[in-house]
Amino acid sequence: MDHFQYRQGRLCAEDVDLEDIADSVGTPAYVYSTATLERHYRVLSEALAPVAPTICFAIKANPNLAVIATLARLGAGADVVSGGELATALAAGVPAGRIVFSGVGKSADEMRAALAAGVLQINVESEPELELLDRVAREMGLRAPTALRVNPDVDAHTHDKISTGRCEDKFGIEWTAAHRIYARATSLPGLDLAGVAVHIGSQLTDVGPFREAFRRLRDLVFMLRADGLVIRTLDLGGGLGVPYGNEDDGVPTPADYAAAVADTVGDLGCRILFEPGRMLVGNAGVLLTRVVRIKEGSTRTFVIVDAGMNDLLRPALYDAWHNIVPAREPESSAEWSDVDVVGPICETSDTFASQRRMPPLAEGDLLAIRTAGAYGRAMGSAYNVRSLTPEIMVAGSRFALVHERVSVDDMLARQHLPPWLVSRPSALTGSTIVPAAGKARSG
Fold first, then answer.
1. Alpha helices of 26-126 — where are they, by DSSP H?
2. Is the C-alpha dihedral spanning 241, 244, 246, 249 positive or negative?
């Protein structure tokens, strides 16, 4: 359930008409619902309550400060995968003691920042990383709270580009080597080894792979404990799918997921960490976009909108399906037809929907691309030198701009011509080239 509904024929975010937001800030623009974020967090935490969960929101899904702060005030921690995400989580008010630092390529500087902040745990994914973390911690006079991320070689049966738990994936320590490496890690003086972690992929629509991975983790815990090794925490990652609207059998509920957790690892006496991302924010966001024009091709009708793949990459990158609806509710008598909804980017891949059944549309109509709260603005770019999309947060009848649009002027102001191109005539036009902003550096 989300809080984007038609009211008297107008699509609203909670109590705010989306047309009012579009008129205020322009399009394209992302809009997030506070009530939806709160509901999703509450439903998940209540389902997992029997295992006393520590829920760490995966910042990579949506790094907006207002989104993170909303979840932090409900008790959420954060799962971060870069120094930038760590700084963002802290700026949003997430206590360092509820932050988990994951990722395969942590630098020494990122490790220092995490240790200086006092994070809950650093998930290590290779032997060289173990050695580096040990060295950095000892140099700082600290012991790093550490968990070993294990690759259980479980196929999540999700999109190939978001599967992370197979033996051919770059993530985690091989299942067959985990026992040996865990034992070695306990001997490194700079590490305080707390437990093991696993994450097998994103947008899972079946709890079967979760159960398989968690059972493997359970077996590992028994083997390690049999050798006298201590396991205090289990980090079960995230990955629970959300409904985009095209699933044949729906997706598992938080209750289904919680049952898989309880049945497999619920009796191990460990602190259990979770790293949900999409599940908390996916359905809490929409991307607003206006129709630029309708183009009649020889075989297809193209609805060209002002949002592009630079604003929402998922359809181009993952062949992802998003429901697209008009801000004005269609009349019951409207004649629907198949159209392609496309953006203005100079790529054929800049397509949001192919042969999608849509009501009659015209230039200027406002559309909402739904379930865009996860991996939407987070993956945005300025490709084709397009401005970066603003973000708006709604709470009841109020809305606020929480991330300003980054304009082309803003981007040009950060570029500088080198000295040899400043104040020289152009060979083609004879005009003088001057720097866009700032002073060129000599050198």
1. 34-48, 65-72, 83-91, 108-117
2. positive
Question: What three-state secondary structure class fits 130?
Answer: helix
Sign of CA dihedral 114, 120, 124, 125: negative
CA dihedral 250, 251, 256, 258 (to 10 degrees): -160
Mean pLDDT of 120-137: 95
- Look up residue 237 and give its two tokens: 């990652």
The closest alpha carbon to 240, from 224, 229, 251, 248, belongs to 251
> For the chain, how many helices (H) and strands (E)?
12, 23
User: b/e per residue, 50-84, with b = 16+ CB within 10 A?
Assistant: ebebbbbbbbbbbbbbbbbbbbbebebbbbbbbbe
Q: Indicate the pairing of strand 337-342 with strand 351-358.
A: antiparallel
Query: DSSP labels for 334-350?
Result: ---EEEEEE-SSSSTT-
Superfamily of domain 35-280: Alanine racemase (3.20.20.10)
Residues with active-site annotation:
346
pTM listed for this prediction: 0.91
pLDDT tens string 308-317? 999 999 999 9
pLDDT band at residue 441 under the 50/70/90 scheme: very low
Q: Where are the alpha helices (DSSP H) in 62-107?
A: 65-72, 83-91
The closest of 281, 276, 283, 374 to 56, measured between CA atoms, is 276
In whole angstroms, how far apart are CA 255 and each of 45, 50, 53, 74, 207? 10, 11, 14, 19, 11
Omega of the bond leading into 276 within 30 degrees of 0 (cis):
no
Give the domain ranges of the chain.
35-280
Single-letter code of the amino acid located at 293: R
Position with higher pLDDT, 246 vs 70: 70
Which of the pair, 178 or 263, is modelled with greater confidence?
263
Greatest extent of the chain over all pairs of C-alpha atoms, in Å? 80
Within 8 A by CB and 6+ apart from 195, the residues are 147, 148, 231, 232, 233, 234, 235, 270, 271
CA distance 69 to 390: 18
Q: Side-chain half-sphere of 16: how many Cα atoms within 13 Å?
A: 21
Q: What does the alpha-carbon distance between residue 135 and residue 127 come to, in Å, rounded to a whole number?
A: 13
**pLDDT tens digit string along 48-75?**
999 999 999 999 999 999 999 999 999 9
Residue type, 256: D
